[in-house]
Amino acid sequence: MVNLNKFLKVRRLLVRGKWLVLTRFWGMDIDPTVEFSLSARFDKTFPKGIHIGPKTYVAFDAAILAHDRTRGYYKHTRIGRNCFIGARSIIMPGITIGDECIVGSGAVVTKDVPSRSIVAGNPATVIKSGIPLKEYGSYESADETRRLFWEQDAANGGAA
């Protein structure tokens, strides 16, 4: 079995390079602690309208928009701290996502999301609120679950 963890340093370097281009060249307001997939898409038509808070994760193929050309709409899109933006979700222009939120995979967010909420669907609706989250939108119990998984994996010789 091939261990791909040896490529993590290269991936981190590539993500850091993309962050530098997005913030220094395009002028986006993305906190240096934000983690994102290399395939995440950030609107370059109105780049100064993208704002992402600390310790947030943007998964693969997610799109963060700040303009709608058909309506001549250019609005600031804000994502708070400790959020998780799911794979292939779309955050429409002018949306504010509060702190400690999870946006489900494939969700299309068309309205503001209150802090400590989980939204999913098309259009995205709040499915749970009042949830405390940690860094990168993880549940408080996630560390224990992760530890148990890796212990089981090691006990099985890496074939969990």
TrEMBL record:
Record Pfam families: Hexapep_2
Stored Gene3D superfamilies: Hexapeptide repeat proteins
Signal sequence bounds: none
Superkingdom classification of source: Bacteria
CDD domains: LbH_MAT_like
Homology family: Belongs to the transferase hexapeptide repeat family.
Protein name from the UniProt record: Acyltransferase
Organism, as annotated: Aureimonas endophytica
